[in-house]
Amino acid sequence: xxxxxxxxxxxxxxxxxxxxxxxxxxxxxxxxxxxxxxxxxxxxxxxxxxxxxxxxxxxxxxxxxxxxxxxxxxxxxxxxxxxxxxxxxxxxxxxxxxxxxxxxxxxxxxxxxxxxxxxxxxxxxxxxxxxxxxxxxxxxxxxxxxxxxxxxxxxxxxxxxxxxxxxxxxxxxxxxxxxxxxxxxxxxxxxxxxxxxxxxxxxxxxxxxxxxxxxxxxxxxxxxxxxxxxxxxxxxxxxxxxxxxxxxxxxxxxxxxxxxxxxxxxxxxxxxxxxxxxxxxxxxxxxxxxxxxxxxxx
Length: 298
Prior knowledge:
This protein has a ten-stranded mixed sheet with strand order 3-2-1-4-5-10-9-6-7-8, sandwiched between helices. The longest helix is centred in the first third of the chain and has 20 residues, at about 60-80. About 40% of the residues lie in helices and about 20% in strands. By secondary structure, it is α/β, with parallel strands linked by helices. The model is unreliable at about 50, about 125-135 and about 270-280 (pLDDT under 50). Pfam families: Usp. InterPro entries: Rossmann-like_a/b/a_fold, Universal_stress_UspA, UspA. This is Universal stress protein. Belongs to the universal stress protein A family.
């Protein structure tokens, strides 16, 4: 069973993707009836690179004042994108990245680790595969390393695209990490009063006769998922997808429901960072391709 969500955190930087993430985060906070926290990571320049001597007050540092102005603008833009039905105003938190080589993902992860029961919502940057490998992606790093659920909202999404939830899509395989994701999916479906679709992706190597047996892998996965979901008043549909690689099969179902404003909620495989980079990660591939927000549960 997944830990109940008690706080939704969204890092903001003033970008369009951060605004879309803020809108979706406020939707989730409203549905889950939890506080919303807007988070801005402010780089801290070394004193020798500042325009003032090191023994001067930080408040007199014009570079720092500029960074504070940027933070204020990021918060203002995020507030403009919030769900209009959000009842509780969000908290605003500024954290400083004091490293010379900027690692905002580390700051975000350290902050999230201090907040029990949190859910992170991030806007994804659009990088090429080479760019992700060479430069890294903050959203990919956070998804890979976070111990809390992480929702990724695509860069091309506008605030209106992230403003509703009409369908929850859950890939199932019967594994423990999948069942944790399924429990969260059930909670979201009940709160939003929307249906759930369970998707089992049949491996190419699994024979049709084995799949249609009384104890087929899909039947077992669906049964365990239903137990983890709990009651879903709007209904549960089971779909077996064949003939595609797992990420593409999941994305195909998300595209099938595109008009219904779906969200994918899935478990994360335990691959190491370099394994994910070299061998591929199902969750990262789904995040890259899906036309909707994707929530990954560790």
